[in-house]
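About this split. The held-out portion is used to measure sequence recovery: a designer receives only the structure tokens and must propose an amino acid at every position. Recovery is the fraction of positions where the proposal matches the reference. Here is one held-out target exactly as it appears in the evaluation file.
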């Protein structure tokens, strides 16, 4: 007698659980990677700077950029899962694709704004955009009204945000 092979098909809920487990695994991997890379950066900065006080500031800006990139990668992964899911409606897929395009636009604008702020003479800056506001952290102990106006002018010229949506903050270690 020939044995019949039993094939099990994953139910819709089973597929969702599988995708969710994969996403959790990716989240854990990115967290570990982030920790390892930040530790390496901190160790490297301590060796280069001889443990000077400047390492905390450098680590903050590097860490902030790394965390921002990790969070965006997780968002893209989540949106990709929605788009590739067979059980997702077309309208939800379209919405997820629009969100991906919006995130790409934010990434591009953040890089441009950071470069423009540095070009104005500031040592370092981190820009984080969302649909409702834009945050700028500048590597400087204090900012004068003129410096804030200079940064704000650049932001308003390059984006569609209004002044009340922009937050400029000096960073002190």
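Reference sequence for scoring:
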């Amino acid at each position: 007698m020939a044995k019949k092979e039993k094939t099990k098909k994953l139910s819709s809920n089973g597929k969702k659980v599988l995708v969710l487990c994969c996403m959790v695994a990716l989240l854990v991997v990115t967290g570990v990677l982030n920790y390892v890379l930040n530790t390496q950066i901190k160790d490297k900065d301590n060796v280069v700077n001889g443990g000077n006080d400047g390492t905390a500031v450098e680590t903050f800006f590097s860490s902030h950029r790394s965390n921002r990139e990790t969070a965006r990668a997780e968002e893209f992964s989540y949106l990709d899962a929605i788009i590739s899911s067979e059980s997702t409606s077309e309208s939800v897929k379209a919405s997820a694709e629009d969100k991906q395009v919006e995130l790409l636009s934010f990434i591009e604008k953040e890089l441009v704004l950071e470069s423009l702020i540095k070009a104005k003479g500031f040592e370092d800056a981190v820009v984080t955009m969302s649909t409702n506001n834009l945050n700028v952290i500048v590597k400087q102990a204090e900012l004068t009204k003129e410096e804030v106006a200079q940064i704000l002018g650049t932001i308003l010229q390059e984006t569609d945000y209004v002044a009340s949506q922009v937050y400029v903050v000096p960073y002190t270690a």
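Annotator remark: The two ends are 77 Å apart (CA to CA).
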